[in-house]
Amino acid sequence: MRAAAPVEAVLSDGSLERMLIILLHACAGALLATWGALHAEWPPGSAMLVAALAASGLMAGVGAWLARRALPAWPGRLRWDGQGWHSIELQTDQPLARLVVAIDLGTWVLLQLHPAKGRACWRVASIGSAQASWHGLRVALAAHAGAARPGAGGAAP
Asked: Which domains does the chain have, with CATH numbers?
């Protein structure tokens, strides 16, 4: 199999995805508190509303913390050089042992980047962030994502 052509694409800063994580956690907290209040047979009213709002705020805070840990707040770049993947974060070029496409929606891709050293991180690529590099990035991801790079120290599961 031939290698995909070299490509470098800008990754999304993940702000929309972080907001979605926070919103989903807030909704989960509100629903859980409301369910608990109804299960406890509290009369509908202000106590149930206060419990739902408090749980929603608490879970939104947890969601914000998780979202900051999961997705970096700065746009990075992803490069396929014909031999391997590189993550360029804050002016640092880091070779990747492995890159996994977790979700592919056609115009939006959730990626898990496994550096040669350090812990894995999540990044988002979209047609909006990659612009003209989108097609080349998709071709390289389809051809070379998933497998560990030979000699990089990362093993495929």
From this structure: 7-13+74-144 (2.30.29), 15-70 (no CATH)
- pTM of the entire predicted model: 0.76
The H helix count followed by the E strand count for the chain is: 4, 6
Note whether 150 and 3 are within 8 A (CB).
no
- Rounded CA gap, 48 and 121, in Å? 39
pLDDT tens digits for range 105-138: 999 999 999 988 888 889 999 999 999 999 999 9
Residue 43's CB: how many other CB atoms inside 10 A?
8
Helices (H), the chain: 15-39, 46-70, 127-130, 134-144
